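Task: sequence design from structure.
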């Protein structure tokens, strides 16, 4: 019979310290503040261009939440999330290009006409339907991750071997896209005009895209929080720390890992699909090794074991990259590498881990003991003298 896991941890001799979790009121307040910032403050303060950049960063944050679940909680160093991000992005891009061609009265997209392709490839045809496109975005990345994860984790491949395998998958996917004229080759797919019937040149519709991706991010964070605090979340941490012991207790660590890996791919596919209409382009350069490592850097800097650390880290790193590259185009790569080295070398838990450590020290700092006072002698009854 499988054993149960306790939420008590013993960090030092003495009574157990119970891990406290934010209550419903505190959690609701946090989501309310985030909603006010994303839906009220950001559109009021930022220009349309900066709001579009923030929407792009939120797409990266959605990917980072999945990496935080798989890597931070499950211990799976996922260096190939660009594959699942790219699958969702290219599926959405193919649908948008077909829709644009239909508006012009053509049978194939514009770049295919230039390349001499007169008929729509067979694997493009299903994506003419909006319903099939949405289902493919939700199913294809998750299904591929489930099949790949089961094949890898069932053979107990982990650690550096899994990281190298996932990175090789990202490299192979990018090379495959470069050699395909039907997907735009190295130039990728771009110049989208509509998004499910809405004109992408209209600023109102661009703001609508920002609101959609902001709502998706909040839903993803809420779902991940539920997973982390559930029984499955405890099992995932147990597999990360003591995989053999979990197997001895009657659980299958492979299935537990596959579930987290699949959820991370599911999030990445959705993020890639929203990235396309917001940014307006998708190419092999956005789905290869370099973007996959960039996703990981944001998670590591923010704090991979926390819930909001990956979100803040991904947005912060992407914002710093955009800001510094505008002023110092050649210095950002060195700054990013230096920041990653400093965080990994001195703050392994990320910036969120530093904040958590400071809070714990503040709570556990012992106060100076007051010297004990000697008890006053009790009043004794008066005794009569002996005669």
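Answer:
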């Amino acid at each position: 019979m499988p054993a149960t896991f306790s939420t008590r941890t013993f960090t030092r001799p003495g009574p157990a310290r119970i891990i406290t979790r934010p209550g419903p009121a505190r959690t609701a307040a946090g989501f309310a503040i985030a909603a006010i910032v994303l839906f009220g403050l950001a559109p009021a303060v930022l220009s349309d261009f900066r709001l579009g950049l923030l929407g792009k960063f939120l797409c990266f944050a959605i990917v980072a939440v999945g990496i935080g679940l798989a890597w931070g909680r499950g211990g799976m160093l996922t260096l190939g999330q660009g594959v699942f991000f790219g699958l969702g992005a290219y599926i959405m891009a193919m649908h948008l290009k077909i829709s644009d061609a239909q508006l012009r009265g053509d049978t194939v997209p514009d770049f295919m006409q230039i390349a001499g392709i007169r008929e729509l490839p067979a694997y493009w045809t299903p994506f003419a339907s909006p319903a099939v496109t949405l289902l493919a975005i939700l199913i294809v990345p998750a299904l591929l991750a489930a099949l790949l994860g089961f094949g890898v984790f069932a053979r107990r491949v982990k650690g550096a071997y899994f990281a190298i395998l996932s990175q090789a998958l990202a490299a192979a996917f990018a090379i495959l896209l470069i050699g395909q004229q039907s997907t735009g080759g190295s130039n990728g797919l771009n110049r989208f005009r509509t998004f499910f019937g809405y004109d992408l040149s209209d600023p109102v519709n661009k703001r609508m895209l920002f609101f959609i991706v902001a709502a998706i991010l909040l839903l993803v964070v809420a779902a991940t929080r539920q997973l982390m605090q559930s029984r499955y979340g405890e099992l995932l941490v147990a597999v990360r720390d003591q995989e053999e012991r979990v197997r001895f207790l009657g659980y299958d660590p492979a299935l537990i890992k596959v579930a987290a890996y699949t959820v991370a791919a599911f999030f990445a596919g959705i993020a890639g699909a929203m990235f396309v209409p917001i940014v307006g382009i998708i190419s092999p350069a956005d789905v290869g090794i370099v973007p996959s490592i960039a996703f990981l850097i944001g998670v590591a800097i923010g704090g991979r074991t926390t819930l909001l650390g990956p979100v803040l880290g991904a947005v912060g790193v992407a914002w710093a990259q955009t800001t510094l590259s505008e002023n110092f185009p050649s210095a950002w790569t060195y700054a990013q590498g230096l920041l990653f080295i400093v965080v990994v070398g001195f703050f392994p838990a990320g910036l969120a881990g530093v904040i958590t450590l400071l809070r714990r020290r503040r709570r556990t700092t012992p106060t100076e003991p007051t010297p004990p006072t000697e008890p006053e002698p009790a009043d004794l009854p008066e005794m009569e003298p002996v005669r």
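Confidence is low (pLDDT under 50) at residues 4-20.
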